[in-house]
Amino acid sequence: MTYTAWIIVTAALVGLSCGLVGVFLILRKTAMMADAISHTVLLGIVIAFLVTREVSGSAMLVGGILAGLVTAFLVQWLHSLRVQHDASMGIVFTTLFAIGVILISTSVGNAHLDVQHALMGEITFIPFHTITLPVIGQIPQATALLMIVFLVVLFFIIAFYKEWKITSFDPTLAASLGIPVMVMHYLFMSLVSVTTVASFDSVGAIMVVAMLITPAASAYLWTDKLAVMLVLSGFFGVISAVAGFYVAAWIDTSISGSMAFATGIVFLVSFIGSPKHGLLSKYIRPGVHGRIVWRVKR
Amino acid sequence: MLSLLLNSNLGWVLLSTTTLGLAAGTIGCMAYWKRQNLMSDALSHAALPGVVLAFLLIGEKNLLFLIIGAACSALVGAFLIQWITSSSRISEDSAMGMVLAVFYGFGIMLLTIANRSAGGNQSGLDSFIYGQAASMVRSDVLTMMALALLVIFVIAIGFKEWKIFLFDQNFAKGIGLSLRGMNTIYTAVLVTTIVIGIQAVGVILMAAMLIIPAVSARYWSHSFKSMLILSSAFGGISGALGTLTSSWGSGWPTGPFIVVVAAGFFVISLVFGKEKGLLIQYIQLKIQQRQQQAKAVLKSEGVK
């Protein structure tokens, strides 16, 4: 495969995995948790690097998952001490992120990690670090990692589909049915961290938030069915990733930035034009949704 | 020593981060009671494209214009969050997350273009991401300090009105206070604080300057006034100590150090805080247990 093809495949995989995970972020109303985790994953990766002294996929994955879980746990803990939920999130992730940046800029210094790279991602370098897999042959390391993560995410979503559905929409019902809500919460947070770590190389810490939240929020405006929303969100993710790549190549700018921007465009289109919950539909078909009648009368 | 500080650039930078900390701590306290802690995070990220656009339009790094650009794009972000939340089924935190990440992505796109253009690379626009207080020159410092003092002044002069606005909106309406007007001023003050902070602390960590001192102050007082003062004190001290620490190494970013110092204050407050601090709670629990035991012993002896 050519250089460009690998980049597109990688970008599409980022869009797909993030799109799937993002659906539950939106439904569980924990979208900002993605922001928090994507920042703290940086600390996990730095510590993994300091311990192993090499940039290896598995160590980074473990470090990232641990950092994500620690974040989720600390936020929960501070909240249980009656700190407002969003304030506890704000404290935990900014502090852990600050420690990460300090570690990078002081001790790791000019090694393989630098803040710039971690925050912006550098998808153009991905095809250069290849590994050889038994069946597929030569494949970029980050792409292989993303493929595995995508399969893991897909597996967990399908295997616990009913549980996700119930815990996301009605946690109380889930608890009364005997579904371990807290275990599901932490499992989900691990999935978010895994996806974030795998996407880190390609899109960086903050743009991954755009990939996680925006396609899912767009899909949320198109449908009321979970399965359809999952498919749509993944689709939007891939579209934005690929479109973002071409726009970036066209005007020669940051690929990850333009991917994030493309998700914004997809959302804007959905927000205005979606036949179900878009702005236009409310004026064209008043009366279908209760509050729109009021809106038009006003 | 003092004259040395005032003559060197460090002295000026120190002064400005301290003032910034004071202002951020004060307005953060209000954001805390409005329950809009993460709003500051979204707005600071949303300021990035404005900074770069202003730079691209003017072609030089003039802090005042960059701040105006930042304020405009942060306000657009605030408006979008408001609009998306009120006119669709998207929840507020999703809207904030989207605005944050999409604006930031757009900012990075523009930044890459600006860095490629002539002179862009030397402009030090990158310092807006993690904060590099050392890169500020004297005129930047003066601009920043003037705006920070303005913010503190606006809050101090209308202290009573702010208090009513935050805690009893019905009463505020009753005495003829315009809620819409107060909200507008509040947003303006919040955005001003955020945009003057992004040069020193960076867009990513600016939110911490607003959130952490306020929550720390909560552990020491129930009164709004003393919480406000404490919060701004925490902010100011964190700003000063963080800047001093980061000046030890060359090229160390200022923002993260300020945040870590602020987080240190938070941990101290969490453990030793007078109101609901962990240690106090633990001691109270122990005393209660002791009393219960003593009562039980007395009772059992009495029965005998």
From TrEMBL, chain A:
**Cellular component annotations (GO), alphabetically ordered:** ATP-binding cassette (ABC) transporter complex
Question: How does the record classify its membrane topology?
Answer: Multi-pass membrane protein
The regions listed as transmembrane in this protein's record are 6-27, 34-52, 58-78, 90-109, 142-161, 173-197, 203-222, 229-249, 255-273
An annotated GO BP: response to zinc ion
Q: Which UniProt keywords apply?
A: Cell membrane, Membrane, Transmembrane, Transmembrane helix, Transport
One Pfam family name from the record?
A: ABC-3
Q: Where can this protein be found?
A: Cell membrane
Origin, by domain of life? Bacteria
Q: Which family does it belong to?
A: Belongs to the ABC-3 integral membrane protein family.
Q: What is this protein called?
A: Metal ABC transporter permease
Organism of origin is Allobacillus salarius
TrEMBL record, chain B:
Q: Name one Pfam family in it.
A: ABC-3
Which keywords are on file for this protein?
A: Cell membrane, Membrane, Transmembrane, Transmembrane helix, Transport
Q: How is this protein positioned relative to the membrane?
A: Multi-pass membrane protein
- Highest taxon of the source? Bacteria
- Tell me, in one coarse class, where this protein mainly resides: membrane
Q: Where in the cell is it found?
A: Cell membrane
Annotated GO CC locations? ATP-binding cassette (ABC) transporter complex
Annotated membrane-spanning segments are 12-33, 63-84, 96-114, 141-159, 185-215, 227-248, 254-273
Which SUPFAM superfamilies would you find in this protein's record? ABC transporter involved in vitamin B12 uptake, BtuC (SSF81345)
Gene Ontology terms describing biological process? response to zinc ion; transmembrane transport
Q: Which InterPro entries match?
A: ABC_BtuC-like, ABC_TroCD
Similarity field: Belongs to the ABC-3 integral membrane protein family.
- Its recorded name reads Metal ABC transporter permease
**Source organism per UniProt:** Allobacillus salarius
The lineage is: Bacteria, Bacillati, Bacillota, Bacilli, Bacillales
